[in-house]
Structures are given as C-alpha cells and as structure tokens.
Amino acid sequence: MKQYKVGIIGGTGMVGQRFITLMENHPWFRLTAIAASSRSAGKPYAEAVGERWALDVPMPEEAKGIIVQDAEADAEKIAAEVDFCFCAVDMKKEDIRALEEKYAKLECPVVSNNSAHRWTDDVPMVVPEINADHIEIIEAQRKRLGTKRGFIAVKSNCSLQSYIPAMHPLKKYGIQQALVCTYQAISGAGKTFDRWPEMVDNVIPYIGGEEEKSEQEPLKLWGHIEGDKIVKAEGPSITAQCFRVACQDGHMAAVFLKFADGCKPDMEQIKADWAAFRGPAQELDLPSAPKQFLHYFEEENRPQTKLDRNIEGGMAVSIGRLRPDSQYDYKFVCLSHNTLRGAAGGAVLLAELLCAKDYI
Ligand SMILES: NC(=O)c1ccc[n+]([C@@H]2O[C@H](COP(=O)([O-])OP(=O)(O)OC[C@H]3O[C@@H](n4cnc5c(N)ncnc54)[C@H](OP(=O)(O)O)[C@@H]3O)[C@@H](O)[C@H]2O)c1
C-alpha cells in the first residue's frame, strides 16, 4: 500500500493529540506536519503541548521535535508538504469553514472532526460502516471548489457514534421512533478533571448544541445523493437529551426504540443482526476497522464506560441490556469511545476509506 504524508491541524488539542498517537506505527500514514494557532507556532511539539498532554499513553517520540506551524499563515507550505490533513480546531464556525476550504482549494484534502461543514450540501459526513457511498459526492464538491484533488470530508458528532451503529442494522424492520439519553465524558469538551474541577462528582444536564446534533445528524448519515447534494432522510425520528458526566473518556447512551406496527423483530433476531453487522470498513479490511463492530454483552451490568470503552482499540461499539419496554418496544444501552471512534479514530478510518477508494 502507498504511504501517505499527513498533516494534523489542531495537533496540540485533545483530539489532535489522539491523531498524533494514531499516526504512530500506522501502516499507511506518516506524520509530516503539525499545525495549531499562532500561540503554538514555531515551538517543537513537545514544548507547544507541555502540560496539556491529556492522554494515558506517552507522547510519540516522532512527534516531539516537529516544529508546530501556524495553521493559517503557513497553509500553503503545509498543503505542499502533505498528501492530506486531519483538522480538529477550536475556532469560530465561520473561521473553521474558511480554513478548511482554504486547504481544500490548495489541493490538500481535509478530513475533519469539526462540525463546521457537516451540513454543507456536498460535504460527505461519513461513518464508514454506515454510509461509505456518500464519498461519491466529492466529485460534485470538487467542481464547486474548482479543485482536482482538494475536498473536505467530515465525520459526525461523537454523541451519536454509539447508538446509530446499533440502530442501523435494525432500520430494515422500520424503526418509527427513537429516544436517547447520552452520558458524555469530559474529554468531549476537550477537558481533563484537572482543567475542569467543577466536573468532579458532578453531572451537568446541558451540552450546547449537542441535542440538535444527536437528533439531526443521523438523518444526513441515512440520506442519499441527489445531483450535487446529499438529501437527508425523513426518519426515523430521534429525540435526545445529552448530559455531561464525570468520566474522562467514553460516551454512553440509553436508547428506546419503537418499530412500525407489526414489524417488531424479536430479541434474538436483534442480537443476531448486531453480531452479523459488517460494513465497507470491514470488507475493505481497513487498518483501523474493528473486526467485530458491535459487541453485545449478556452481563446485565455491561457495557461499563471504564471497562469497555477501549474494546478493539476504542473503535468498536458495545451494547447491552436489550429488553422489552412498556412504552417503546425495546430499550438498551450502548457505549463508544468519544475521542477514538467518536473523533480522531473515526476520522482516521474515514481517511483510510478515502485512500482505499482513490479519493486521496
Ligand atoms: N473532544 C472530543 O471528543 C471531540 C469529538 C468530536 C469532535 N470534536 C471537535 O474537534 C475540534 C477540536 O476539539 P478539541 O477537544 O481537540 O479542542 P481543544 O483541545 O481545545 O484543541 C483546540 C485546537 O485548536 C487549535 N486552535 C485554536 N485556535 C486556533 C486558530 N486560530 N488557528 C489554528 N488552530 C487553532 C488549538 O491550538 P493551540 O494549542 O495553539 O491553542 C488546538 O490545537 C472541535 O471542533 C470539537 O468540536 C471534539
């Protein structure tokens, strides 16, 4: 397989740090450039991050000495050095949109963690097991941008990375309604307990913008390409409440599902569908793809955030406690690692798909 030179924009942040660790020993990708704000530019990576290193694994040696560049001022230089870049920055939405388009127009494909372009009509928002075919919209996007190579592709929000994979193989039965409550880790806000002491021993029942993303983004994932845009699906309708809880990593969701009249599968059928579910990521044997995407636990106290978030390198989804419900048809619990599958890992898997399909 070809080797790809990779830049990480926002490499000093929480998600950026995950990207840096995922490049270490990646069979296809080689970390070539790191960019962040002007505050970090000009410093070796280890110095720019300093005390902010937030992961439980050490900073990769190969990254420590790389001089961090200025994501905006050095864009042309970075775009010329790399085959594509990942982007995870904390900036105003319109500034992120402009920054990502700038790189795309410099013929540098951008695989983004940011939400800024998720609703741009011709930007594919992809979970490779669910809607890999949406990458075909890239040709239309390149026409709009006037590029040959450059484009933007995004991954969806971290909150829905547990329950959408669990719902997807059941859609064929006609899911009518879903209710989800998410219990989201503090790394999802780019924080550790040291930097967010109010979160110790606490639950905050509000995460700005998260409930709307949790309800709406699935409809784009389940949408289809029509001409030069992705048209969102009409359903199933999802209602969500999103809480911040005192966990470092791992977003859990409590899910209730109602099927159309007469369409309800039995519990054994649902478990069989989850066990059998594979997507293009598994079929193409992409390096970051979990072998078994959905893991069902029969134990009644699993999945647990601390015990199960790292299954298959944090790229698989765990499910448990499937049982009948008195108002909906069924309820269950699911879990995914928010900065791995839900952020950097999900973007790396998307980049692998784009490379395997010759878009990069
Ligand atoms: N954390 C998660 O689980 C998660 C999940 C999904 C999506 N996301 C999204 O990923 C993005 C990054 O989140 P995060 O948690 O990693 O944030 P973070 O830890 O606050 O990191 C922000 C990064 O953005 C850089 N930055 C800030 N202003 C900049 C500017 N003007 N120009 C260039 N770079 C700039 C920072 O560089 P300096 O170090 O130089 O300041 C840093 O590298 C956000 O859009 C977030 O919504 C996060």
Structural topology:
Layout: E1 4-9, H1 14-23, E2 29-36, H2 45-49, H3 61-64, E3 69-70, H4 75-81, E4 84-87, H5 93-105, E5 110-112, H6 128-131, H7 138-145, E6 152-154, H8 163-167, E7 175-184, E8 203-204, H9 210-221, E9 224-226, E10 229-231, E11 237-245, E12 251-259, H10 267-276, H11 280-283, E13 294-297, H12 305-308, H13 311-314, E14 317-324, E15 330-336, H14 340-356
Parallel strand pairs: 1-2, 1-4, 2-3, 4-5, 5-6, 7-11, 13-14
Antiparallel strand pairs: 7-12, 8-11, 9-10, 12-15, 14-15
Helix pairs in contact: 1-14
Bound molecules: NADP nicotinamide-adenine-dinucleotide phosphate.
NADP nicotinamide-adenine-dinucleotide phosphate binds next to helix 1 and helix 14.
Characterise this structure:
The protein is an alpha/beta fold. The protein has 2 domains: 4-157 and 343-356, Rossmann fold (3-Layer(aba) Sandwich); 161-337, Dihydrodipicolinate Reductase, domain 2, CATH 3.30.360.10. It is built from 14 helices and 15 strands. A 7-stranded mixed beta sheet has the order 8-11-7-12-15-14-13. Strands 3-2-1-4-5-6 form a 6-stranded parallel beta sheet, sandwiched between helices. Strands 9-10 form a two-stranded antiparallel sheet. The protein starts with a strand and ends with a helix.
